Design the sequence.
């Protein structure tokens, strides 16, 4: 099959005018101008007309479980207040509500051009009732060992038993100790060794709020008090920042996707600078969620200048208003106007592909990559295609995942 569009945005080289992509099965086999691909005589030609054809977008941090919570919690005065509120909301919902939320979340992601999603799953037992995923999905098993008092070994054994013999062709699995305030260092270390053995990716929330920083660095503040009330052992508090605590104890390494990293001290930056380039963890920034919580300004430029692999994601609808990565890119652009539209697009294509160890397989259009593609109508001039893509506010009219055109 050949798919033709007025512009092919490969994210792997210059834009191709009057471009075409040849697909065999679920793979891209050739990319070029329409005349370049004239030698391919077999199979149908699909002409998308005045469209930009680009890789399907990758959302590197989402919680589909909470897709029913849009506007359910007004922006809170404190992060701890929000945690208490969402915990209460979670207790009021049953498994049918969560299944409906996951399906609704998938539909909204697809509507806005996301073809791959990192989904942190708090209720993995629901998956037996879900069927194959409609998008390429990394199901990250959320691991918490502070509150439920189950041993870390049991948590990991449960996760691995669950992942065995599961999943459709679009499903992959990973492990996600929730955050340093809810997951012990030994749980992080066990997740590390399991992920190495089963070649699974790893993600966690780190340094999300001022209250998390106060808890670890100062042994003080609302989160510290809340966790003390939950009888979390607090001997790791009053020592180091959340990031330093994890990094210096070997709980995380360069394989990890770290969501948020909003609260970083100069010491954290020195630590990041001491890591050889390419060895730092990937960082996932969620601009809408960041704005909702009024976190400390995200230090995008400093992280970018250190060569950190930066991804943009939505987080859940409990703390942002849409699952459109285009909305998130525009929010990011408002605080980081120096980022070019092409740089913005890299944070939802090639960068998250690299974070998931799927470089050259996802997030770009090149021979050998998986055929996950979207098309966006653009004006005929092609002078500012990347700008037009980032400005997109229309549902995506054409999507292909794994070589299949979605109906
Ligand atoms: Zn999250």
Sequence:
């Amino acid at each position: 099959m050949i798919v033709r569009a007025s512009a092919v945005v490969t994210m792997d080289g210059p834009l191709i005018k009057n471009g075409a992509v040849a697909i065999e099965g679920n793979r891209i086999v050739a990319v070029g101008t329409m005349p370049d691909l004239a030698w391919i005589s077999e199979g149908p030609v699909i002409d998308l007309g005045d469209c930009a054809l680009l890789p399907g977008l990758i959302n590197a941090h989402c919680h589909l479980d909470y897709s029913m919570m849009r506007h359910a919690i007004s922006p809170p005065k404190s992060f701890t207040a929000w945690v208490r509120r969402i915990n209460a909301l979670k207790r009021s919902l049953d498994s049918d509500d969560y299944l409906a939320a996951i399906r609704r979340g998938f539909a909204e992601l697809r509507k806005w051009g996301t073809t791959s999603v990192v989904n942190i799953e708090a209720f993995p037992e629901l998956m037996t009732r879900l069927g194959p995923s409609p998008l390429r999905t990394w199901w990250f098993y959320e691991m918490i060992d502070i509150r439920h008092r189950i041993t870390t070994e049991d948590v990991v054994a449960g996760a691995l038993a669950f992942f065995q013999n599961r999943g459709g062709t679009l499903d992959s699995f990973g492990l996600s100790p929730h955050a340093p305030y809810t997951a012990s260092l030994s749980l992080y270390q066990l997740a590390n060794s399991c992920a190495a053995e089963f070649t699974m990716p790893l993600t966690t929330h780190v340094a999300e709020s001022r209250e998390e920083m106060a808890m670890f660095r100062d042994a003080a503040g609302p989160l510290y008090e809340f966790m003390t009330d939950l009888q979390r052992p607090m001997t790791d508090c009053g020592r180091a920042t959340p990031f330093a605590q994890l990094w210096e104890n070997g709980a995380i390494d360069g394989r990890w996707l770290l969501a948020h990293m909003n609260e970083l001290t100069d010491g954290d930056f020195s630590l990041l600078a001491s890591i050889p380039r390419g060895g730092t963890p990937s960082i996932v920034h969620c601009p809408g969620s960041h704005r909702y919580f009024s976190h400390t300004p995200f230090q995008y430029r400093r992280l970018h200048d250190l060569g950190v692999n930066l991804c943009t994601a939505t987080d859940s609808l409990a703390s942002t208003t849409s699952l459109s990565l285009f909305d998130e890119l525009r929010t990011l652009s408002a605080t980081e106007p120096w980022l070019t539209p092409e740089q913005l697009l890299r944070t939802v294509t090639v960068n998250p592909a690299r974070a998931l160890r799927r470089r050259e397989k996802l997030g770009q259009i090149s021979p050998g990559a998986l055929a996950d593609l979207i098309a966006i109508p653009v004006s005929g001039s092609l002078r500012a295609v990347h700008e037009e893509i980032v400005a997109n506010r229309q549902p995506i009219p054409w999507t292909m995942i794994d070589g299949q055109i979605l109906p």
